[in-house]
Amino acid sequence: MKAIVLDGVHKPLVVKEVKKPVLAANEVLVRIKAAAFNRRDWWIQQGQYAGLRFPVIPGSDGAGIVEEVGSISEERWIGQEVMIYPGNDWGDDENVQDKEFTILGLPENGTLAEFVKVKVHNLHVVPSHLSFEEAAAFPLAGLTAFRALFVRAKLKKGERLLITGAGSGVATFALKWATHLGIDVYVTTGSRQKLKRAMELGARDGALYTDPDWVKQLRQKGFSGFNVILDSALGEGFAHLPDLASPGGRIVFFGGTSGNIPPMNGRKIFWKQLSVLGSTMGSQRDFKEMMGFVNQHKIKPVVDCVYPIGQAETALRKMDRSDQFGKIVLRADTW
């Protein structure tokens, strides 16, 4: 079969012929119709991700049609249009993933291939209102945003949310989730174009984090602070988030693209009764609840662009500029 293969750090993504996966019991073979990139794929190519191994087929997001099953008892899945939960072995504790937990695309081969092997319990039927390209955009980024907001930070209707770095896949899903609940959402972003786009999607207002007074701008919006703040960058800007949080607020983060947690005034955290929460992807139960939310509200993802899968390297280079707004999707009918 054909696959997109990464042979090493800073190597380009290339199309290669590789062996078709062999199924064990309780596994299925999905013919990929569409896949999508996450920032995770970019970090792996840059050599800045744990557990690197090469060669590897990247990709955590995928949607397609079940072609083969490893057990006769699973034959009902053959021909089904499915999207894939991208994790393996989360474990029995919903509060935290097991030490054996892995994500498709590293160390296991991922979705940027004609076929991908997954466990049958990782399959979810594609909602009728979504195309394959739209379905492929959801899994990793959508789940990360869903767990961070609703499981970890326990965001609820009537609260105020700040999303930093609007434009990323997770941030755009967070905006979608929150606005469908009627939450007042504010954002920070690096360009006026992205700020305008976020407001078109339902954000109330925001600020450019490139402005020296971005914290002051947000504090002057006429309210006492944000109940929940969602962040993926850490770095110097993270030190300002306690100032922007309302008393009893929750600051939840799922990445560190700008560095580590900087020196902070801990007195602001304990005096305001703030919670600082980490979050990573999500469990099978989280994914099922997310898809229930998607079906209930007929939510569609924000897709920035769609490339033929054979142009995966060109598509990933778009992340170098960080100018996308939403997900970068790969259509797998063109190699």
Quick recap of the structure?
The protein contains 10 helices and 17 strands. With 335 residues, the protein is an alpha/beta fold. Strands 3, 4, 5, 8, 9, 16 and 17 form a 7-stranded mixed β-sheet that branches. A 6-stranded parallel β-sheet has the order 12-11-10-13-14-15.
CATH homologous superfamily grouping of the largest domain: Medium-chain alcohol dehydrogenases, catalytic domain
CATH architecture of the largest domain: Alpha-Beta Complex
Whole-number tally of structural domains: 2
Can you identify the CATH class of the largest domain? Alpha Beta
Total DSSP helices: 10
Main sheet summary: 7 strands, mixed
Task: State the separation between the terminal residues, measured CA to CA.
Answer: 11 Å
Strand tally? 17
Show unreliable segments: none
Judging from the principal axes of the Cα atoms, what is the shape? globular
Q: What are the secondary-structure elements, in order, as H or E?
A: EEEHEEEEEEHHEHEHEHEHEHEHEHE
Q: Over the alpha carbons, how many angstroms does the gyration radius reach? A: 20 Å
**Backbone structural class:** alpha/beta
Kindly estimate the percentage of residues that lie in beta strands according to DSSP. 25-35%
Helix content: 25-40%
